[in-house]
UniProtKB/TrEMBL annotation, chain A:
It is a peripheral membrane protein. The gene is ehuA. The keyword ATP-binding applies. It holds the Pfam family ABC_tran. It is found in: Cell membrane. This is L-cystine ABC transporter ATP-binding protein YecC. SMART domains: AAA (SM00382).
Amino acid sequence: MEREPVPAPADAAPAAGDWMIRFDQVVKRFGDLTVLDHLDFHVRAKERVTLIGPSGSGKTTILRLLMTLERVTGGLIEVDGRPFSHMPGRGGLVPANEKHLRVARRKIGMVFQQFNLFPNMDVMRNITEAPVRSLGRSREEAETRGAELLEMVGLADKAHEHPARLSGGQQQRVAIARALAMEPEILLLDEVTSALDPELVAGVQCLLRDIAQESQLTILCVTHEMHFARDISDRVLMFDRGRIVEDGPPEQIFGEPREQRTRDFLQAVIEAG
Amino acid sequence: MMLSFTAPGPLGTAAEVLPYLLDGAVVTVKVALGATPVALALAFIAGLAGCSGSRWARGVSRGYLEFFRGTAVIVQMYWIFYAMPALTGYRLDPVFAGVIAVGLNLGAYGSEVVRGAIAAVPVPQREAGIALNFGPVQRMVRIILPQAWVAMLPPLNNLWIELLKATSLVSVISVADVIAESRTLRNTGYSPLVVMTLVLLIYLLLALIITLIMRMLERRAAHRVGREPPPLLPRRRRRRPPVPVRGEVA
């Protein structure tokens, strides 16, 4: 596999202590296709950032890199001041191994477009299995927390239901509860309402808005729903071809975009929607 | 027509030979039951190795598959029973040799079933496992295998029946299975028609028992992953109501 040389490790303590996520010259290629092209950006702790942009602009790849579902081709990702995509070794930084990743991704949770609930477990088990197996919680403890989370997402009566017997909206609520059960500090939302029937979208968005407002989570959200982006985020990044075109608060990006590319994209979204 | 039970008519012959054939059937069942865990264990070991990230493990799994799939069970049985003693100086018990040969052979076929079923579990399930920070072994045991198991059962049903039929070859290494018994009976002068019809029925009955067991496992597994369990016995297909012609009042 071709991996670009890693830049020299940053100073032992990162300059700005409150960066939760830092992308430093991150490159991601799939074969000849460059998806992320020397990308630099920071996300502060508790910041809620929405990534917008046309399909193939690299938004989902950023989430997948953070969830360790993909590895960087070049550059470095840091989370909470520590190397994330790499680990110390051989006098510098080397690509992270499974052991490093398992510790590193402890802080991160993800909700997927297609929910990806486990069909071989009921709803409660979907939520409690990871806390029990991976965080070492007792079954009772995990189930108590699971019941609270199900209550929060409005599915307290579905604990022993099978995922296949739930609607798309209900499955996505369970997936949200499942991600939160791992007590992440960073929550990644990957087009979480794109696979839902139109009448179920509002409920899930409303739930996520409440979570965003009431929790201390750092949120990275990829969405094509501009209203949702405006509601949930305090910062919007406009992507095109693996680079950030515009970066600003939602009022500015949606109200008075500075870049022509952003204006064109928003215009296209409005016309399509 | 009155049936005579004194003259050795077909039924009389059947009654005479059946106890011998049933003795043989017990041996057949023993060999099959011995070979089943061997085959199943090898199928899982080689199947999992075939999905492994290690090239070495995949290579060994592939070598095992190609070797045992590509050579006849009967040759493997002869080799283990007659040729191996020349190498090791130690002759295996014929039943044990039969169990090992059949187990090795069907295990090779089974490994492809296991590998294929694991590969067929959707990638997003694996990714959800990573996102929830399950380790590789936990992902396999808690998420992938329980889902793959449902897909494995119908082809494993086929293979289990294949295994039962492959045990018919142990008679060549002097095991007194149902085939060996039938040969003795024919050589003694009993009607081949009667003897071989009974042998057919014995194999069919055993195969049906296997299918029944596998169907029950299939139903349980389907229920566990939230699917409609397949019926235990074939059900009559419900006819769809005829579609009313447009404009016609029902």
